[in-house]
Design goal:
There is one protein chain. By secondary structure, the chain is of the alpha/beta class. The chain has 8 helices and 7 strands; from the N terminus they run H-H-H-E-H-E-H-E-H-E-H-E-H-E-E. Helix 2 packs antiparallel against helix 5 and helix 3 runs parallel beside helix 4.
Length: 232
Amino acid sequence: MTNDRSELALLQQQTKTRQKIVEAITHQFAAEDEGLQHALMAAKQAGLPEIQISPIQGKLLQLLAAACNAQKILEIGSLGGYSGIWLARALPPNGRFITLEINPTHAALVKNAFVQAGVSDRAEVRIGRALELLPQLQHEAPFDLIFIDADKANTPSYFEWALKLSRTGSLIVVDNVIRNGALTDIESTDAAVQGMRRFIKMAGAEPRISATALQTVGSKGYDGFAVALVTG
């Protein structure tokens, strides 16, 4: 019993420490302004699940976009527009950000979030099933960065389209690949886990990219993301 209590106390302390670190890093490097806070509040009031990326992850996406001098960015899966704001702000005034959203009500929310955040001049929402909208984007390709954060079961198909819509030097970022550690569970019947397992296998065998995956732990729990550089 004593050992159990000691282990529990240690886990609780580690959780508190991780949270303090997240708060400190967020404060120093990824503080949210009114535009980002409005997007979060509006999404919450509309009943959207609170599964958006963290501020730290948003800042990382923004840095990746800036590092590759992105002029055109594509996002698959809008949610409340939070990640889209981070990405759109990495673009120059003549840049273009397109996000795909299946739900018209959510899309209206995202449009308003872009207005409130001051990025509506470069950011737009397209409504429909991503697998139906993606073929229509071929004449607007290539995109310099593509962020995949939609229904996880279809991630392999989204990744295939991301490759078609990219160029040499483009970055493809895929969120939620670790699935709280379930990525390694070969017996999982969860469609999201199965989708990510297929994607990881596909990406590892794809000769046109150089990629890696990172585990993350923090305010969004235990998960991770993959980053792929298109090399050919």
